[in-house]
Design a protein that fits this description.
The chain contains 18 helices and 33 strands. It is of the alpha+beta class and about 750 residues long. Bound molecules: ligand ISJ and glutamine (GLN).
Length: about 750
Amino acid sequence: MILLIDSYDSFTNNLRLLIAESTGEEVITIHNDTFEPEQYSDFVKSYLPLFEYIVIGPGPGHPENAKDVGIAGWLYKHYKQNPGTTLVPIFGVCLGFQSMCNEFGNRVNRLHSIRHGQVYDVIPLSDTDSSVSHKLFPTKEKTPCVRYHSLHVPMEDLTDDIVPLAYCDDVNGSTTTRVLMAGRHRSLPIYGVQYHPESVCSSSGIELVKNFHAIAKEYPHVAADSPPQLLDEIRRFDIRYREDHKFHSPEPSTDTAYYMVPISLPTAKPVAICDYLYKKSGKTDFFLLNSASNPCQWSIIGFPVLGESCVITHSTDENNIVELGKFGLPERQRLDLQALGHADIWSYLKKTFEKAYIPPATFDKHQKLPFYGGYMGLASYEEGQHIRFEKLKSMTNGSTPDLKLVHIERSLVYDHENNQWYLLSIKPDDSQWCKDMSDELLGAENDGKLVINLANIASSVKDLAEDENIEFELPDRKTYQKQFQACQEYLHSGDSYELCLTTQLKLKLPAKIHPWEIYLILTLRKNPSPYSCFMLFDDVILISSSPERFLSWQQTSGGKRKVEFRPIKGTVKKTPEVDLKAATDILRTPKEMGENLMIVDLIRHDLYLYVDKVEVSLLMSVEEYSTMFQLVSVIRGEIDHKHGIDVLECSLPPGSMTGAPKKRSVELLQDIEAMQPITNGGRRGVYSGVCGYWSVTDEAVWSVVIRSVFHYTDDKHNLDQYKLWRIGAGGAITVLSEEKGEWDEMVVKLTSALLSFT
Ligand SMILES: C=C(O[C@@H]1C=C(C(=O)O)C=C[C@H]1O)C(=O)O
Ligand SMILES: NC(=O)CC[C@H](N)C(=O)O
């Protein structure tokens, strides 16, 4: 068994998998603060003998801050003070390595040229130690490896205790500096590397771990035969151990009554149908998830039933309450989650979903569809992890709606590739509605009412900008400059490697403008995108034109789930001069590729929490959108014992919206973003969260809420004749960023939504 100590990095699970795969051993991962300082000595006595060796992982911060390293720093000290005893070998990675050098008398300084997500050749030095027959670097071969560090241990004045084992050449203009990349203690079984062998772009990670494994085996320490109860105890400390995560799928039921017919509406596109229904009734009691272009094949229109369909509301302002209402009715039932036996809203959702679950086999005799009914809705940024709720203020007069899900039993699903519509209902005894809806649509099609050219719809909508009462307020530039500086300080101090700094724009719209008009203008005319949505709840309205799919999961034939993330990171504005080729040249530079790589490694880590096989199937591909070019990667895995919703829960907020490492970055961003008063204590709300669907068959697609406008009906800033709409925008700040460039990128993104109103 191997112990991995995590210092809240966003790459730790990648390291765990690398160790497990290279050695075939069980790896127990604990946080550096899983034990309190007064328990450290007991920990060493009771648990340490269970392990063949310890890996001390990377993380934010500086080894001299006791809080940043926790038990890891103490362990090195303990080894230093007890050199004669039998010690369990240690392997330190990045912060874990810096911490080792620091404890043995070395300074840890800021790097002259900070490297985050950059590939460098690691060059081994000869190790003359003849007491061990294995070496960390047995050959002199250089290997390209990824660096994520702001700090380093100056190589030129290493203490005698530390033997350098590898370095890299860092070229800066005309000067080349050697940066220490690996070392070992002169006499104790402690080794370490400064780079990240677990990154997807590092070579020879497996060999490195195997070499250390062989070295560790030569030390006299032999892992004790462990009493099973001690093993059970330590496994419970593992960061993956979660008792409440079991999910019970019911047996396939054979008597699910449902209705599903393909209908032929050759001219109708999803927006045309919604627009037809809106024009006819003046109402928008539909929820639309629309894919105007690749890479999504499907669009879904959900029809909640007035006064019947359940709407789930959760606010992080009242974390322990879930509210249940009926679509279109103001009454809500308030339930206490703890009293119902739920640890949190996610555990409630899982239990509620189990009751609604219909195995995909039920629909086998029909066309396989992504959605047969289920939930449509959104989760805000604050529904994700690491938010410090005590600092937030509500955006509304009451509590801010953070999670909204409407249960959909009636829907229309459109297959863009085959131009085929499906009408569905899983509501019992619903054939009359199905017949009426189908007659209505076929009638409209025959009468030519769905033969609406999308361009015509778009141009028939009055340009919102003609309404001179529209006002908007950009984020304050001076404050943004301060925010940018604050980010730079944290990137230089080693607290973060990338910070996705975001701001919000206040948009005052006359109350008479209908949200559907905004949807038409935004998604048809101004910013067509693959993941647009229209969601009108009674307390929050979301109109999104997102290019970024966050997470999807699908069932496979063996009852497992295939999950896929599609992060975007790296942005270039489209201009007459910047075409695909020019954009590719700009995006294939260390700055943009480093930004993307950091998020790819972070998402691999999020996914590896529950999944043992993860692959990066697309790395930094340049994609073209309406107003910009972006770098896109795809990360896939297959989950066995857990479910898609577990992956969603543990990977929110989306890494592309936080930066890395996620926990520290979210905490820092909350304070930095609070400098702009509109954010109410660094609250992002719906922006930066996710929206999408979760089918009763347990398949789902969630996109990132960006390039979107949203409105809280009870927003603190609403005025009598005006509604306050919000548009969020931001971008990843790295040490290679310039303030003006980042401000401009943020404005381009704001503008992609704001264009609808100007
Ligand atoms: C933060 C936004 O976008 C995110 C940041 C990106 C970047 O830094 O390049 C790209 C896509 C999104 O993940 C936004 O659109 O507001
Ligand atoms: N990846 C890491 O562990 C980084 C260590 C340290 N915080 C630095 O920035 O240098």
